[in-house]
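Hi there, hope your week has been kind to you so far. No rush at all, and the record is pasted right below.
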Amino acid sequence: MRNQIQRDDEDNLGETEGRSKELGAAKAQSDANDRAIATDAANRAAAAKKAHEESEFNRKFNQFDGLVHEDNGSSWNKGDGLQVGGVNNYLKTVHKRNKNHRKNSSGDTENFQEQKAREDELANIEAAKKAAAAKAVWDKRHNQFDGLVHEDDGKTYEQDGKEVKGVNKFV
């Protein structure tokens, strides 16, 4: 009987070793499958990221001037990667830097705009008054028949401002 038990134990040991080898092989295969799935997912994510970056570059790249125009308005050269400056970019930068100076000083932008409109209107009225006064003086002094300007002190000028001299001026 002892031999029988010993043989049964050896058979059980052989089965256990066989099962553990099968489990080890299955675990190794499972790990290999997991690595393959992770690698495949990483490759797909990298391809999707590359496709997204390529589409963004194509959207921003202007083939006519060779520049890449960002959404914030800045531009850079595709060839050397340097940011492109210029008069228009300088003006945008200056105004962006000082864009709130009026708002902070006056308190309300709408009131500032209304005040500026009133000042402009008053300046236009004042300029119109000055122009009307100058026209009245011109009409008084300008002689339409000889085309000369006659001052109150008796001097005569051409329309370009040169003084007219003649024989009657020496008497």
